[in-house]
């Protein structure tokens, strides 16, 4: 026999009766799946069922041949009060009877209209939304749930109320309810499911609602509602069917005088025309919109686990969320369609968006419900990625476009606002695809005209990207080409080469070959993204061929072709040819052509730098910065800044490079540009300097910012250099696994882009990273296969760093003589070019070689020379990265400060302590832990500026920080030096040789 709950006890079990609410009761529920509940309010059979991987209880009651159910909740929710209330609700909503009326004109109540919808087996528990509704329920009486068909409105409300423990009633509306008397008849009938005698005395007044003002007839109904039980909820579902203003007015009146114990929930596909704005202003309405109803990726994953035959991957869930945007009806249809098309299992074909199920649903539930004029508006505007009312008017030529947009927004016809002012919109992704298909089927002859109208409107608004897109879609390639020629240089100056590339990709090949300027734009794009020299040369030849067919040949274009060829020659290491071409290009340029003159000056500076002609390189790069900034060519300006800063770094002038990078940032700020890709070079450069100064946290921050800008603009050089700096920083911070993970990612991206220089940079970086890890086995294998001749009379500048690494590898293999030969050859070449930044590293290698040979005095003298060159720029990581073998030499110098001079004791001790701490050197003597070591790099910078006599304001301006920040640093300096004034701090600093 089925166990029975009656009189607060469970009987029919093996042992003694069990009291409801006791520990034994909940333990019994956990082990069993069915019982019978009987009370004065009604009875039902309770069953525990598995839904979406979890167990829930449901109540079932059969009445006059029909089976009705009610969600009871989880095991822990089955308390006595909850079961009693559930029995009463189930008994009332299943009772089929004539309305409590003696009026023969009163219609029969359809039970289905006053019965909550059945709960489906795959209903997902959505605690994110039900928690919001529970919180709202403690503060508000009026709930408004809006969203399109299939967005889960009714299911959510039903699930929430079914477990709330409070009585509720449901009224599903349709078009027949637009008569006020009929509407109120059903509203009262639905409430009588909870309180059968409710409002019987108002029966004779219902018909008067059709003709009498609401203020005359409604008070008696509202007074009757005051007799309802506490916390009763009335749900009006599908309220969008109501279009009678009299009913809207009566509902406004009800909301104004709503009894305290009644909560009203309206579910609608569109915002009802009641006084919502007034209620919002008074804080009396709780709202859930389509955006909140949509499934999150996590909810899609959980829900699909119970729907699909196989769990979806994270990638598939992401694609599903992007394409459906969490719209529940489409999710269901997509999964159903996907199950019928199992061969489409890859991520790229996972969403069968044109499946008949999906488009049939959109046709019947959305498009067919709209007037013909609105249907045409929807289809015609679907050619637009985004739109506002003015653009819609230009494309559709419907004068009421603004009104239609507002209507669509109010009715939730899948419009997504793109700005806070709700001026620009776009359609839901799948809905847009559906509308375009409908346009192709119904009005294909109109598509070209629509794109032409859109192109003209965007041209008038000075929006070239969109204008070009629609001009190409309309096959008006001549117009699109003119727009690219007008705006292409602007994109190059902004380093928006990916955008320019997308423009050029829209043209057929014949258009490019006819227009030399487009060919040159194509060459610049290839040069900046993934250069292949033979392809670029073919493009330049096409430009020259096209120029020969033109009556007026432009010498400016010919000079631009020469400048591009010179840049290629420079990248290939042919500096002599590069200089010859650049000088030729420069003579053909008009003096007013600041853009091209700045480009040529940049190439000249880079070529001179490659040849070691530093004075001419610096002069050309400064000229490029001047010319390019004057014509607002920020791309070239920042590239010249990067090149000149690199020149300073090679010369050991880190502070000058630091200041130059900040100048580049100021130039961008002055031009209100915050996301220009070449700005990535500024941040990458600052990160590289911070790494050298051993400020690893700031280095990481700068490098990540530079990488983000480079990736956003598609410039492989920026983000690859950023990756290189970030990998070394991560390795210095002990994050080895993340370092090599990043290296693998960089390798993958370089292979995808086919960037040969990038591959060479990664090969060199791999060796450096293994050296920093002291991976002797890898370094030995590399040195055996690197094909770098040890007896080369002159080392090519392109391979200088490779030879430096080879020398360090030979030292690891105890071959100091071979290493010293390479080092001395490199030193001879570097000394002639005054590249002291590189020389510092070479002197350190030479000192290590002397130490391996046992020539300690030469080692100390050489290391002392490197410290003398390094101190003005505060080099740190160059000494740390040399490895633990340098520490005994540094310790020796610390012990004999009077023998070697040219640098301060404070700087020597800082270098030693930083290296010893990093390498966990056991012989660190406390006497070398000078007080100055406690000062941070920024504090030492400020200390040096104090010694120059600068004021707080001047220091803030020099370091580009706030005056309050300067004061904070000064306070820390005084504390660490045990000083109370500038004079005392400087005296202590000098006594400790910090200055």
From TrEMBL:
Pfam families: AAA_16 (PF13191), GerE (PF00196), TPR_MalT (PF17874), WHD_MalT (PF25873)
GO annotation, biological process: regulation of DNA-templated transcription
Transmembrane stretches, start-end: none
Domain HTH luxR-type, residue spans: 928-993
Molecular function GO terms recorded: DNA binding
InterPro entries assigned to the protein according to its UniProt record, in alphabetical order: AAA_16, P-loop_NTPase, Sig_transdc_resp-reg_C-effctor, TPR-like_helical_dom_sf, TPR_MalT, TPR_rpt, Tscrpt_reg_LuxR_C, WH-like_DNA-bd_sf
SUPFAM superfamilies, sorted: C-terminal effector domain of the bipartite response regulators, P-loop containing nucleoside triphosphate hydrolases, TPR-like
Keywords: DNA-binding, Transcription, Transcription regulation
Annotated protein name in UniProt: HTH-type transcriptional regulator MalT
Organism lineage string: Bacteria, Bacillati, Chloroflexota, Ktedonobacteria, Ktedonobacterales
Encoding gene (name): malT_2
């Amino acid at each position: 026999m089925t166990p029975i709950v009656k009189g607060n006890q469970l009987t029919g079990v093996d042992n003694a009766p069990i009291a409801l609410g006791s520990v034994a009761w909940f333990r019994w529920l956990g082990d069993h799946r069915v019982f019978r509940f009987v009370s004065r309010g009604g009875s039902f059979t309770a069953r525990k069922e598995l839904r979406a991987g979890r167990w829930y209880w449901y109540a079932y009651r059969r009445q006059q041949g029909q089976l009705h159910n009610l969600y009871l909740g989880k095991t822990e929710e089955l308390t006595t009060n909850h079961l009693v209330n559930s029995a009463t609700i189930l008994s009332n909503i299943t009772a089929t009877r004539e309305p409590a009326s003696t009026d023969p004109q009163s219609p029969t109540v359809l039970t289905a209209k006053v019965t909550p919808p059945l709960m489906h087996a795959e209903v997902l528990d959505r605690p994110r939304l039900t928690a919001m509704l529970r919180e709202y329920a403690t503060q508000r009486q009026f709930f408004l749930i809006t969203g399109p068909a299939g967005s889960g409105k009714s299911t959510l409300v039903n699930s929430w109320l079914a477990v709330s423990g409070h009585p509720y009633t449901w009224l599903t509306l349709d078009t027949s309810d637009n008569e006020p008397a009929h509407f109120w008849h059903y509203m009262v009938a639905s409430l009588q499911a909870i309180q059968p005698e409710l409002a019987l005395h108002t029966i004779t007044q219902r018909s008067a609602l059709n003709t009498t003002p609401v203020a005359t007839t409604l008070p008696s109904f509202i007074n009757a509602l005051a007799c309802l039980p506490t916390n009763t909820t009335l749900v009006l579902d599908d309220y969008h069917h109501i279009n009678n203003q009299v009913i809207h007015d009566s509902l406004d009146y009800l909301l104004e005088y709503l009894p305290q114990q009644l909560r009203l929930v309206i579910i609608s596909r569109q915002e009802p025309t009641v006084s919502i704005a007034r209620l919002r202003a008074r804080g009396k309405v709780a709202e859930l919109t389509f955006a909140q109803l949509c499934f999150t990726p996590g909810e899609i994953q959980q829900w699909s686990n119970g729907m699909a035959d196989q769990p979806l991957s994270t990638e598939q869930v992401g694609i599903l969320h992007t394409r459906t945007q969490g719209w529940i009806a489409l999710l269901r249809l997509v999964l159903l369609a996907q199950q019928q098309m199992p061969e489409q299992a890859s991520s790229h074909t996972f969403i069968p968006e044109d499946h008949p199920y999906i488009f049939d649903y959109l046709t019947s539930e959305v498009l067919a419900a709209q007037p013909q004029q609105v249907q045409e508006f929807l289809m015609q505007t679907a050619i637009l990625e985004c739109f506002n009312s003015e653009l819609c008017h230009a494309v559709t030529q419907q004068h009421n476009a603004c009104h239609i947009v507002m209507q669509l927004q109010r009715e939730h016809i899948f419009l997504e606002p793109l700005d806070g002012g709700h001026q620009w919109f776009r359609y839901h992704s799948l809905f847009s695809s559906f509308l375009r298909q409908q346009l192709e089927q119904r009005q294909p002859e109109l598509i070209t005209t629509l794109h032409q109208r859109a192109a003209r409107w965007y041209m008038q608004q000075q929006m070239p990207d969109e204008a070009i897109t629609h001009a190409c879609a309309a096959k008006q390639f001549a117009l699109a080409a003119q727009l690219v020629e007008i705006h292409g240089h602007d994109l190059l100056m902004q380093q928006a080469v990916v955008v320019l590339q997308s423009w050029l990709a829209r043209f057929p090949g014949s258009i490019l070959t006819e227009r030399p300027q487009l060919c040159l734009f194509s060459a610049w794009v290839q040069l900046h993204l993934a250069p292949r020299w033979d392809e670029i040369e073919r493009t330049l030849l096409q430009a020259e061929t096209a120029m020969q067919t033109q009556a007026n040949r432009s010498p400016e274009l010919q000079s631009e072709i020469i400048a591009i060829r010179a840049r290629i020659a420079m990248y290939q290491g042919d500096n002599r040819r590069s200089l010859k071409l650049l000088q030729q290009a420069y003579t053909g340029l008009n003096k007013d052509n600041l853009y091209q003159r700045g480009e040529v000056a940049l190439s000249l500076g880079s070529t001179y730098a490659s040849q070691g002609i530093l004075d001419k390189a610096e002069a050309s790069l400064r000229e490029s910065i001047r010319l390019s900034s004057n014509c607002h060519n920020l791309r070239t300006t920042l590239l010249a800044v990067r090149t000149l800063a690199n020149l300073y770094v090679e010369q050991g002038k880190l502070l000058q490079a630091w200041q130059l990078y900040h100048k580049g940032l100021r130039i961008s700020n002055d031009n209100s540009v915050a996301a220009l890709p070449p700005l990535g070079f500024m941040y990458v450069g600052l990160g590289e300097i911070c790494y050298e100064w051993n400020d690893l946290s700031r280095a990481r921050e700068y490098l990540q910012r530079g990488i983000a800008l480079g990736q956003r603009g598609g410039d492989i050089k920026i983000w690859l250099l950023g990756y290189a700096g970030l990998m070394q920083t991560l390795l210095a911070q002990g994050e080895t696994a993340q370092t090599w993970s990043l290296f693998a990612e960089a390798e993958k991206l370089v292979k995808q882009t086919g960037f040969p220089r990038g591959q060479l940079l990664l090969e060199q970086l791999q060796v450096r990273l293994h050296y920093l890890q002291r991976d002797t086995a890898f370094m030995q294998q590399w040195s055996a296969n690197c094909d770098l001749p040890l007896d080369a009379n002159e080392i090519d500048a392109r391979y200088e760093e490779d030879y430096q690494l080879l020398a360090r590898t030979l030292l690891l293999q105890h071959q100091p003589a071979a290493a010293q030969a390479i080092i001395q050859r490199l030193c001879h070449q570097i000394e002639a070019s005054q590249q002291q930044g590189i020389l510092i590293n070479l002197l350190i290698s030479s000192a290590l070689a002397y130490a391996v040979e046992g020539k300690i005095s030469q080692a100390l003298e050489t290391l002392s020379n490197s410290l003398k060159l390094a101190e003005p720029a505060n080099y740190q990581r160059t000494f740390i990265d040399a490895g633990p073998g340098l520490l005994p030499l540094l310790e020796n110098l610390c012990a004999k400060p009077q023998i070697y001079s040219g640098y301060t004791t404070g700087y020597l001790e800082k270098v030693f302590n930083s290296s010893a701490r990093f390498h966990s050197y056991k012989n660190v003597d406390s006497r070398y832990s000078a007080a100055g070591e406690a000062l941070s790099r920024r504090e030492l910078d400020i200390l040096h500026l104090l010694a120059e006599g600068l004021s707080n304001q001047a220091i803030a301006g020099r370091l580009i920080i706030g005056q309050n920040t300067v004061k904070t640093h000064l306070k820390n300096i005084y504390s660490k030096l045990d000083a109370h004034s500038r004079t005392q701090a400087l005296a202590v600093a000098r006594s400790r040789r910090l200055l």
